[in-house]
């Protein structure tokens, strides 16, 4: 049976994450929703009667995404003042949210129907941190396989420019430069060549569809306009040259890709960011088993690696973990990372 208090509490958990990540406007909205949600609307009833685990299902971000879409479309002027940070008093924010839920119930309800597509270009810096370590261990040439690619923004990783504490990677003329605040020693400037990048997503976003692109923009927190700018540039990059993104099940796809022939001198890398929690125990187990089997086949000429950026719920930070075969099968934590890649703090910082 649904636990209404638990479902409200998920919004307070999300408020904490937003506050820690420097997003006070989104935090304020989450806190207000925890208080003001009621059963007067279909959307409110569905949230309060949510049958799953609301934090794991990212329930608060589903609803906040729908509200932000109304803001970006200019359909709710009072709500836009909340997103702009010009209305901050808790009672006023709660009343505006109640009014918005009542007036836009039909528009908001569908946002609860699927997990948020929180694809974020800034996370490529975290993944690149792991890839540099893989190249250091096994050689410069990498073949990347990403699960949970969403709209495919991180499949542009070979086309982005990176400034990682002054260490530069990627094309100098890229329309997008990823330059997080770097805490700790900068990575070594080593040779790194990305031979191919492929990804899979159960429900990929087609950024050629303006409606889909606007949906992705709605999931970007209003506190971070620079992220919106990078997103727009990345959308244009994909329009100019599409990425290799397949619709499919992550476990099915990775099992098939790991069985493909692997060229000598190329390290095959499974990578993902903020996706593991959405896969479920059965898919997780299948992917782990497929990687374990592939690790047994790995050789110095055909290495295998796993690079992941996933959340540590206790610290409200993301962590970058790397393991590779042969010789480095024990996972190593390289860095703590802000959820959207705003800063990277190396583990030895």
Description:
- The chain has helices at 4-20, 24-36, 42-48, 59-72, 77-84, 90-103, 105-108, 123-138, 210-218, 225-240, 250-259, 276-297; strands spanning 141-147, 161-164, 167-169, 177-178, 181-183, 193-201, 244-247, 267-273, 304-312, 317-325, 328-337, 343-346.
- The protein is of the alpha/beta class.
- The strands form 2 sheets. Strands 5-12-11-10-9-8-1-6-7 form a 9-stranded mixed sheet, sandwiched between helices. Strands 3-2-4 form a 3-stranded mixed sheet, with helices on one face.
- The chain is globular, with a radius of gyration of 21 Å.
- The termini are far apart.
Keywords, separated by commas or semicolons:
single chain; about 350 residues; alpha/beta; nine-stranded mixed β-sheet; three-stranded mixed β-sheet; 12 helices; about 20% strand; globular
What is the secondary structure topology, with strand pairs?
Blueprint: H1 4-20, H2 24-36, H3 42-48, H4 59-72, H5 77-84, H6 90-103, H7 105-108, H8 123-138, E1 141-147, E2 161-164, E3 167-169, E4 177-178, E5 181-183, E6 193-201, H9 210-218, H10 225-240, E7 244-247, H11 250-259, E8 267-273, H12 276-297, E9 304-312, E10 317-325, E11 328-337, E12 343-346
Parallel strand pairs: 1-6, 1-8, 2-4, 5-12, 6-7, 8-9
Antiparallel strand pairs: 2-3, 9-10, 10-11, 11-12
